Amino acid sequence: MQHNFNTNIAEIYGIHEAVLLQNLYYWIKKNIANEKNLFDDYYWTYNSVSAYIELFPYMSEHKIRYSLKNLEENGLIITGNYNKSKYDRTKWYALTAKAFELFNDSICQNHKHHLTKSTNGIAKNHEPIPNNKPYNKPNKKPNNTVKQSLPIISFELSEKILKNSGLKYDKKRIESGAKVINDINIIDKYSYKQIELAINYGLKDDFWHNKMAPAGLRKKRNGPGDFTKFEKILKQAQKKEKPIDEEAEKYRIARLKHFDELGRQMYGDRYKPILEDNNATSGNN
């Protein structure tokens, strides 16, 4: 699955905001063309947060709500409720003129007479994100929007590193870092769960915090094991944050109890149990 989003919007407002705005732009343009959902001089689309979670599984509910709120507070969208049932709380969304300008779209939402069929054909070169089919449409305006061939999580993690480690932060560095993170996943065979674990640890760690530049994560240093910087950070993160496998622990204790029982049968009181608190653990007297 591939998603397209406007990198200029992402640079100003954030990647999640750019993705959601692109989705809204697609459906509102479609409604303008079909002269559908026109209320109070705006064309609208609607969706629930749960539907967005299904559509964008890499975004949490909190992130979706926060990003939509951020778009509204920055004057890019407005919200309303035009549901037929008064009990239906599904939110409706409309784009402002400011949002259309970001897409180089001259359609104006402020007055109904601007939304004629002659203007519906404007900006057909944009290929925003639909939510009913795979995201594989190419973009015909590379200067404003780039085709998203890398997973969005790569961009998110790159942005997270640059924002939180005091490094210079701009669009090119985010894209460059995303490529490195994608290489760690595809070439080095580490899952995004492992990558995120290492990044979160490195950003919190006093030693690694200022050494997290994405460009250097795959570089190897001469030394024991010849590990990359990422691998060193990941090993430390796993060592510190590795959760206890409860099933394995239960199995280990059960085996030790079994050995203790055999020892008591063979040696009686002379046997010193492996589990000194075996009775307390097992609940037997």
What is the secondary structure topology, with strand pairs?
Layout: H1 7-13, H2 15-33, E1 38-39, E2 42-43, E3 45-46, H3 49-55, H4 61-73, E4 77-80, E5 92-95, H5 97-102, H6 117-120, H7 152-164, H8 171-186, H9 192-204, H10 229-241, H11 246-267, H12 278-282
Antiparallel strand pairs: 1-2, 3-5, 4-5
Helix pairs in contact: 1-2, 2-4, 7-8, 7-9, 9-10
The side-by-side strand order for the widest beta sheet comes to 3-5-4
Distance between the termini: 60 Å
The helix/strand order is HHEEEHHEEHHHHHHHH
Number of domains: 3
Largest sheet: 3 strands, antiparallel
Unreliable spans are 108-148, 277-285
Topology-level CATH name of the largest domain: Arc Repressor Mutant, subunit A
Second rung of CATH, namely the architecture of the largest domain: Orthogonal Bundle
SS class: mainly alpha
Describe the structure.
- This protein is mainly alpha-helical.
- The protein has 3 domains: 7-120, Arc Repressor Mutant, subunit A, CATH 1.10.10; 152-241, no CATH class; 247-282.
- The chain has helices spanning 7-13, 15-33, 49-55, 61-73, 97-102, 117-120, 152-164, 171-186, 192-204, 229-241, 246-267, 278-282; strands at 38-39, 42-43, 45-46, 77-80, 92-95.
- The strands form 2 sheets. Strands 3-5-4 form a 3-stranded antiparallel beta sheet. The chain has a two-stranded antiparallel sheet with strand order 1-2.
- Strand 1 (38-39) and strand 2 (42-43) form a beta hairpin.
- Helix 7 (152-164) packs parallel to helix 9.
- The chain is elongated.
In brief, what are we looking at here?
The protein has 285 residues and is mostly helical. The protein is 48% helix and 5% strand.
